[in-house]
Amino acid sequence: MNRLAVQAASDHQWQKLIPTLPDNAMATALVEQRVRSALAAPVASFLPLNYEPGYAYPLLVWLHDRGGSERHLPQVMQHLSTQNFVAVAPRGSHECNRVMKGHRWVQQPAAIAAADAAVSEAIQLARQEFNIHSERVFLIGHGDGGSMALRLALQSPHRFAGAASLNGRLPRRHGLLRSINRVRSLPLFIASARDYQGYPELAVCSDLRLLHSAGCSVSLRQYPGDDDLTTCMLADVNRWVMEHVCGN
Q1: Is residue 78 part of a domain?
Q2: Residue 47 belongs to some domain of the structure
Q3: Model confidence over 145-158: pLDDT tens digits?
Q4: Cβ(152)–Cβ(139) under 8 Å?
Q5: CB-based contact 119:153 (threshold 8 Å)
Q6: Does pLDDT of 102 surpass 90?
Q7: Range with the lowest mean pLDDT among 52-61, 97-106, 177-186?
Q8: What is the CATH number of the domain that holds 243?
Q9: Which of 42, 147, 176, 209 lies in the 20 to 30 Å Cα band around 188?
């Protein structure tokens, strides 16, 4: 199992991973920094290998972990899939402190609204430029980004075909299950590492009990070790999404 270390990468390291040509071997056709207004967050985009404009692609919206940024998207997609999806990644709504650089997602009402707006903007940008299947938008997050992915999907289940959280706790409070009558048809994927202290097994069990009590459909994957993000997790996300895409 290979650990995917994205949080510690500096901007200089990330420059080496961002290609400039559509036929780059990493199959990342374009990474764009977009600011449409003073409040809009930068958004990175990813095109699959041999992108076909006539095909309506599933869209993955990636939410990075604390200390990360939208610039992690190329490396994530390299291990998730370089062929199956168009992907976009907005930047977290809040900056981290001086010790930890990067950005984060915050579970407070104003920050939740900002995250929702950033995700909506990223989806809109993808639809404007690429051929996206309107009913195959999946929200995927890591750590704090996974927690926000679950929140936004559970609050507005009609907007997404599914949501996945990789070592991200299920948030509580602030109307998480206000759309409880509609979440039963929303597929959820939760990944956890057995010895990862940021999401211990007791917390995983508590989250599953709450989701099952709400009638949610949950796929759980638990991995050995204490890594917070691995290539195996991303490969399983790819399989899970494709099961739902092909099943539909």
Answers
A1: yes
A2: yes
A3: 999 999 999 999 99
A4: yes
A5: no
A6: no
A7: 177-186
A8: 3.40.50.1820
A9: 42
